[in-house]
Design a protein that fits this description.
Elements: E1 2-7, H1 10-25, E2 29-34, H2 45-50, E3 58-59, H3 67-85, E4 89-93, H4 97-108, E5 113-116, H5 128-139, E6 142-145, H6 148-156, E7 163-165, H7 169-184, H8 187-191, E8 199-202, H9 206-209, H10 212-224, E9 229-232, H11 235-243, E10 255-258, H12 263-272, E11 275-278, H13 281-289, E12 294-296, E13 312-314, H14 319-328, H15 345-354
Parallel strand pairs: 1-2, 1-4, 2-3, 4-5, 5-6, 6-7, 8-9, 8-11, 9-10, 11-12, 12-13
Helix pairs in contact: 1-7, 1-15, 3-4, 4-5, 7-12, 10-14
């Protein structure tokens, strides 16, 4: 069986790592198509190196741009690759523009599509990702769901055929690489950090970064925490901070802005943080996997399972609420429940593809 795997952004590299290993272990041919949506070393190539993902067979190098421009360029170039390679299956991941472009190019060529991380819904139509995931699900032949909630979301939209509850490949990846991260990463030493001695934050969603008032509130909330906050700055966020004339790296001693970190460094930062503050779906899950309390700086989450037992709390961009929650948060007594599978979702997906 020949499979084209479409990736383009950091979360997709992480999900692709265990699945690529399982595909090749089963003796199938994999063609990795990198759209180039994330393109600098810290957001792309380092993940291929650390996660032992084979070099991409094709890199479209599309890079940044408006949603229409970026998705359109990807669609044109992906179609060319699929016509040339003639795969038996195409796999897309998650909810990015790369996901949607891959799905649209594939469905129009009548090639079966497998969507990994199907069925997620935030029910917030202001999110570009929500449109991407809904459209991709309705194009797909095989829908690999990470949780029972995702299965139910698809059922409510009339999608029942080809739906499989398989677990979450990101959990596979955490189990696969967490020990390696602890043995290889020097990030805590390099930054002078101690376990539970800092907060970890990430910001990248368009509705948190595109308006100066909103981004300013988030920065103010991080500053007001009164604790050391480590903020690996996403390239989008870095540009907006500069464009809006917000604080620079030396404006406060408690908020430490750093360059984007590798996957292994991020796993170590997550495991040792006292609290994680984020608008990233993947980081919410990783916090849950590591039993680190998470504050989600969004009005909702598609990962509603992480809210169970208080491991994740939605705080939006309310400065007072963020500050109050950071100070008053009590670590939940009940450990996170195994809601995302058993760490064997990748082999399970390959067995279903073979059938």
């Amino acid at each position: 069986m020949k499979i084209v795997t479409v990736v383009g952004a950091r979360p997709q590299f992480i999900k692709a790592a265990p699945l690529s290993r399982a595909i090749r272990s089963a003796g199938h041919q994999e063609f990795i198509l990198h759209t180039g949506q994330h393109y600098d070393y810290g957001m792309s190539q380092v993940f291929f190196e650390e996660l032992s993902i084979p070099e991409a067979n094709a890199n479209l190098d599309v890079r940044s741009g408006g949603h229409g421009q970026q998705t359109g360029q990807m669609l044109i170039e992906i179609e060319k690759v699929l016509l040339r390679e003639k795969p038996d299956r195409v796999i897309v991941f998650g909810d990015t523009n790369s996901t949607l472009a891959g799905a649209l190019a594939t469905v129009k060529l009548h090639i079966p599509i497998a969507h990994v991380e199907a069925g997620l819904r935030s029910f917030n139509r202001e999110m570009p990702e929500e449109h991407n995931r809904v459209l991709t699900d309705h194009c797909s032949d095989l829908l690999f769901c990470p949780t029972q909630t995702a299965v139910e979301n698809l059922y409510n939209e009339g999608i029942t055929r080809g739906v499989h509850l398989v677990g979450d490949p990101m959990y596979d990846a955490v189990l696969m690489f967490a020990e390696k991260a602890r043995g290889h990463s020097t990030i805590l030493h390099d930054l002078g950090l101690q376990r539970d001695g800092y907060l970890l934050a990430t910001i990248h969603r368009a509705y948190n970064t595109d308006e100066p008032e909103v981004l300013g509130k988030i920065i103010a909330a991080l500053q007001a925490s009164g604790e050391m906050v480590i903020l690996p700055v996403h390239p989008r966020t870095h540009k907006k901070i500069r464009d809006f004339g917000l604080i620079g790296p030396s404006s406060t001693s408690s908020l430490k802005m750093i360059e984007p970190v590798s996957y292994l460094d991020m796993l170590v930062l997550e495991q040792n943080a006292r609290i994680i503050l984020t608008d990233s779906g993947g980081v919410q899950k990783e916090a849950f996997f590591f039993a680190v309390p998470c504050l989600t700086m969004r009005p909702e989450t598609e990962w509603v399972e992480t809210l169970k037992d208080g491991w994740n709390t939605i705080v939006g961009v309310d400065v007072d609420k963020i500050q109050r929650t950071v100070h008053e948060l009590v670590r939940p007594k009940r450990p996170p429940q195994p809601l995302f599978g058993d760490g064997q979702s990748a082999p399970r997906i390959v067995r279903i593809l073979e059938k």
